[in-house]
## 1
Amino acid sequence: MTSTKAPGHATRSSTAPGLVLRILLLGAVLAVTVWIVPVMIGQRQWLWLAVTVLAALGIFVLYSTRRLVPGKYIFPGTFFLVVFLIVPIVLTVGYSFTNFGDAKRGTKDEAIASITSNSVQQTANSRRQALSVGVTGGFTASEDPADYTFFFVDPDDHSVREGSSTQAATAADPDSITVTDGRVSAADGFTILTAKQVNEVYGTLKDVGVETSDTTALRPQGTTQAFEGTKTLRYDAASDTITDSISGAVYSVKKVGTSEYFVDADGNRLPQSWLQGVGAANYVRLFTDSSIGSQFLRAFGWTLVFAAGSVLLTFLVGFALALVLNDERLRGRRIYRSVLLMPYAVPGFISLLVWSNFYNRDYGLINQTLHLHLDWFGDPTLAKAAVLLTNLWMGFPYMFIISTGALQSIPKDVLEAARMDGASRLQATLKVVMPLLLVAVSPLLVASFAFNFNNFNAIELLTGGGPFPADQYTRGATDIIISMVYRAAFGGSGADFGFASAMSVALFVLTGILAAVQFRFTARLEDIS
Amino acid sequence: MTTPQHTSRRTAEPTPRRMPLGRWFAEIGWRHLVGFLAVVFAVFPILFVLSASVNPLGTVSSTGIIPKAFSLEHYRTLLSGEKGPFLRWYLNTIIVCVVVSVAQVALSVLASYAFSRFRFTGRRAGMLTLLLIMMFPAILSMIAVYSMISGLGKIAPMLGLDTLPGYIIVMLGGSLGQVWLIKGFFDTVPRELDEAAIIDGASHWQVFSRILLPSLVPILATTLVLSVVGVMSDFLLGSIFLTGDDHKTLAVGLYGMLSGDRSNNLGVFAAGSVMIMVPVIVLYQFLQRYIVGGSTAGAVKG
């Protein structure tokens, strides 16, 4: 970015406080960077390392010189934009070419370690160990077993070992550990969980095995103890196979679907897989699997109807009210305006949750007041109508406000001239006011369309996407694309993040096309002067 | 901002009573009828919430627009924390809204100044890219954000999952969300003003902080309020990131409470809604002039 003609360039005023402030800022950035970089390397957080180093470099380049003035103003917001909007989008595109999902998170080595450690069985001479569980940072009830570090104290020789699902047990550094009553009660860099917290996440912890040798591992047994036992599944690196020492079955790496698993001769596979690139398989599935493809298309159709319908309804009602209530002879115009502004002031999540109660078939306000017996959320058409009606309530005040503003900005003489030329009130409205007003508000209408296109809350908080057909759960009648993708990624069992990411990328592309159309449509953008 | 609504109201004092009733209705009266219907439509859900919040039974079936009995039972239950730490959620929401909105408006103002007043390579492309990115549904890259924040929590635990600061910095991804709007405001201030100041020896920072910013304070304050309500309405990010009861915001907490037992918690939910809704509605009434001006500033310029 080179700046030409920047104001202030000519006048190199350099005040003493300004200089001090600048030095303090750069010093602070340097200090934080130097302090945090080793931590990031220790935690293997390469992404954050890159972010930190690049940001620090950026700050030094931008704020140590007098040049690059626009950059100084744009940088702070851009930093957050890049880190929390653009980087995630890039990562999502990356995920869409993998099999990322439940039981497919780690590397192959981690998968092997976890498979073999999980097969530990108690034997006659299994030794009990006192168990403590620690996490780095605060306790968050994570479901990823790799987040927990296990500490074991041997009841006989009081030796302390630590390890995790991905790290074999090693002797702990006695200086960093505090042992109280034969258990680890504190460890440097870790928060030791209380019995209650361990209990809360025991579902995640109970299947974790911490490797102690090629043939043995430690496993939790209850929330305070662990036992050391023998693995029944053993990995052989030379042949890349896993052998079950009890049944004698041999599992070798084979592809099932798009992912590789360990599979035995009869075709039984071990559940744990690992993160793999799958090429374009997710996209192929999206576009060739006929049921998913048609669901996506149908959701797209309803998304268009929903977004266009919402804009049209809210605008028609808002504009009509603005026309009717903008008469100068009308008393109480200010009161009308104040009251009609109210729905706009209610936070959206409250409106949606309140409205969702109105549609209840048996005791909802709408059925009770109008003495109807409509099953609003049980019937696809009624559910769609309910969504549109609610969105009308939430959106018409905005359209009323902008229409009123635009109406008042239309010069009086234009109208007077039309009336003088013999146009009736109605004609003047239709032929003179309407076109002027549409020119003024059309960018806002297009923006409103784009907003509703991905209006996740309006669907999720009102109908939750329902009603769902009896036989399938991927898409309900009121699901727009974004809520459908959300359900695929987070809803239900067996999260398939790779596939959900592919759907997200497809929606990104659709949104991009929409934006391109909007650019075309919005003449205002042409004069970014 | 410069709509002539106030002058026009005064110049044309209506005198409807001089007309015959029939003509009065044809010209003006029907407008009141339409206005009345619109008011009913706009207000009934709000009245319902008010009514439900003071109806001691507190079930959906027993609540109408007009309360049949009056009791502050639900407010008492809510504040006592029986159904969840409501005051804690309120405080969390205030912290999140204030920090995020102030940061959003401040960072947008900085960037808007550059986009409005400087000419540099990539300026137009930057503005368009910004518009494109703000249109992307950020929700869809949530899996990536989740794993990023989980990683950040390992470096700096206070910024991890299920912490308010962690949630706040994720929300800051939308920091440049108001650039287009605010650049429009900057564009309305004549450039001659800052050029004169530059000739007098002001630096670009002084032009920004002493000349442009003060003249935009009212409209920026309004933008801030609109931004606060927008941030308050975030439900999805909150429900993914804030899982501990003490870390929830109002949207996440009240949703959890209502969906837990929809029928019996309605009254308490309504009481909570009133306590959120009423301050915002009152604020909007005070800022009405600016809100109307602010929403149309972009529209009528075209």
Note: The mean pLDDT of chain B is 82.
## 2
Amino acid sequence: MEMKVETGKNIQVKDVSPSGMKIIWQEIKKDKLAMGSLIILVAILVFVYGASFFMDAKEIAKVDFLSIYLEPSSDYWLGTDYGGRDVFGQLIIGTRNSFTISLFITLFTAIIGLTLGLLSGYFGGATDNVIMRIIDFVIALPQMMFIIVVVTIVPVFNVYVFIMIMTLFLWTGKARLIRSKALSERELDYIHASKTLGTPHWKIILFQLLPNVSSLIIVNFILNLAGNIGLESSLTFLGFGLPESTPSLGTLISYARNPDVLENKWWIWVPASLMILVLMLSINFVGQALKRAADARQRRG
Amino acid sequence: MTLLKVDNLKVHFPIRGGFFRSVVDHVKAVDGVSFELQQGETYGLVGESGSGKSTTGKAVVKLNDVTSGQILFEGRDLAALSRKEIKPFRKDIQMIFQDPYSSLNPKKRVLDIIAEPLRNFERLSPAEEKKIVQDFLDKVGLSPESIHKYPHEFSGGQRQRIGIARSLTLKPKLIIADEPVSALDVSVQAQVLNFLQDLQAEFNLTYLFVGHDLGVIRHMCDRMGVMYRGRLVEEGRSDEIYENPQHIYTKRLIAAIPDLEPEVRGDKVKLRKKLTAEYESSYSKFFDENGRAYDLKPISSTHRVALL
Amino acid sequence: MWKFILRRLLVMIPQLFLLSIIVFMMAKAMPGDALSGQEINPRANPAELDRIREELGLNDPWYQQYLRWASNAVQGDFGISYTHKTPVMDVIEDRLWNTVFLALVTLIFTYMLAIPLGILSGRYNDTWVDKTVTGYSYVGFGTPIFIFALIMLFIFGFALDWFPSGGSVDSKVDEGTFAYVVSKINHLILPALSTALIATTSTIQYLRNEIIDNKIKDFVRTARSKGVPESKVYSRHILRNSFLPIAAFLGYEITGLIGGAVIIETIFSYPGLGQLFLSSVSLRDFSVVTAIVMMTGFATLLGTLLSDIILSAVDPRIRIE
């Protein structure tokens, strides 16, 4: 029978968990689009973070009235803006800032969403009720308007405050997603088993429940990262995102609100727009491939 | 010696309804159940799905909240204890789950699964822990290399044995086996059952065996209780209940066991028809006007039946 | 069903209350007070200002001020606009209609794109048609509206000059004429299409997945095995079941459009509520800002309510929660 069928001597002990990193990696390798996206993404990030290391942000931000609105040339690869500042340098710094800040926003919303989602789903009952009512409310608010108003009325405004404000409004979707997954997981017997084995709640949540929502978290994290880059640059574009001292990709694009720039000075806003598109699309393609990997029904081949 | 005494146990679940989602009624999943388990015996709880047998088992390990009644384990009332106070008793009472697929965390290795209770109660070095886990794996007939594998790499029967190994690591006195073989192939069922009996002898275990399969219960249990709609309707030694069922529900349950010999099939059909007629004609002898079974009354020193 | 709607409405009462409290708090946190909106003598001395403040009740405890503000708001009185020197509601009214028109046209475009593309993609899944549509919706999903709208404006508004690049109507035409209506629609097309082309992608994907899920369900198989023609299988069985959830998203869609109005109206210089909001924030005309936030907050709550109700009508399981 099935007893001791595996008691051979040459058994290879493999560390493969059902939807572990290896399967994720295999899935990306299979998906040419995702693989290409990942390569492009890594290349851009390595270049941007590397180049910004050698750049002097202050030098780039310096206004030079002698070289206003210059077209691209060997001196200024992507021309200059209304203040005579190098667009290429701003593009590099802006990409770095946009990505870093979106990453932090995604990270913080993930921490809050995960904590509240797991607590709400695992304990259910009154805890769940209170948390869900808060989520329902925050999710129904016109977020962009609220963010803009809060940005204008906070007494001190800098990058950290901006990240905090964004986090305050953006954690809810994640919490709801994780809560519904946790809610279905907690009815499974392995959670019941842990309870009867005397494992404390916090250990069950961290070591039993969390690993089983991890693929959901990873996929959601990646898709949210792309979304947050879009949201951050939208707000900056409108003039209510990153403060002047921290230029983002949205800053460059916001110059296009001047019709003259939009119509005649493409070098200022097109590169930054393309950069956002490439970043968001490649992150999304990787995320979608992972989503397929996590959802076995859609797994390719 | 009485190890476990369940006295007038009730587990009610609220039904919410109406405009304000207030509690309008209760599902009486377990409604006044009493029985005793002697040290070293196997007691079976049998009944159809929804009869409250699993809920009773789960109430003993506090997976369900007890509405009222007592669960006396070695004289201490578990029902009255808080989650914290119950922790020392977790060592003594363990559970084997029905579904070997959902009862093992898919993201954990066998080592972590089986060592989980050990880590909660004992301070062991990784080497000691590994040795204990491998000893138990050996006892349940799995190779020592299994510790590095994940549950999905095993068959249902093997998984169930991992679950059993996990429940044994703390050397419990009582094991609640909640339909431990009903999710397994018939060919594997007997194997796991025999093996549970071997373990019982070796570790001096007491089993509370929950099941719906009368054949399995008879094979395993010294005594058994028949549950119906949250009530015990008959209780006694397994052979008594088999040979001499008194309650109409028990009779019908036994008559429903399929027979392997085709020639008696006709007789069986007749018997079932007769019992259906009896059920309809003498309903009030067994159930009160609310359809609730009467309290158990002894008809011999070991045999009790819910009769008017 | 009615019970659900009533209960859902009851949930809205505390939500509305909370919303109004938050908006009121934000209004209080904004620099300046109602006095900033009044025509007062700039040389008025501080004692005089204090007297007016007292008269206006600005020194009352906050809850009294809140009650007064809330009861005025319910009657549509949000005070005086500081920049326009007229009641806030008058400033808002015209803009509100522009935004409603824009949202309506956007919705029409969104569903005009989503329904045929979603059906094609779902019915002929894994063909080149499906792959093209899915590719489009993946790209659309990852594209922020403001960039796409800028590109659309650049191409069709400036480079090709097919559509006007700003405003809601040509200033040269007279109100009430046919040319006026044409001009209005002409101004709507580009912003509406830009939003719809992006917003539609999630609906396309949802419809596609619904159809694919329904295709293999037993009731569809039964219909097929009974010999129902394929076109009828779709029109009678699959589409009916796939459309219902889409209809339910209508409310959420509206909620999204309200949020997107700020961006799209700014880019196309379209004089709607979103643009008014942004310019009022920049000009620190906070009585207008407060009114707009309160109104859009109310509208999004209504949108969510609408979707929840449609969803519960479509899928009774949701009502249990």
Note: The interface with chain B takes residues 3, 6-7 of chain C (CB under 8 Å).
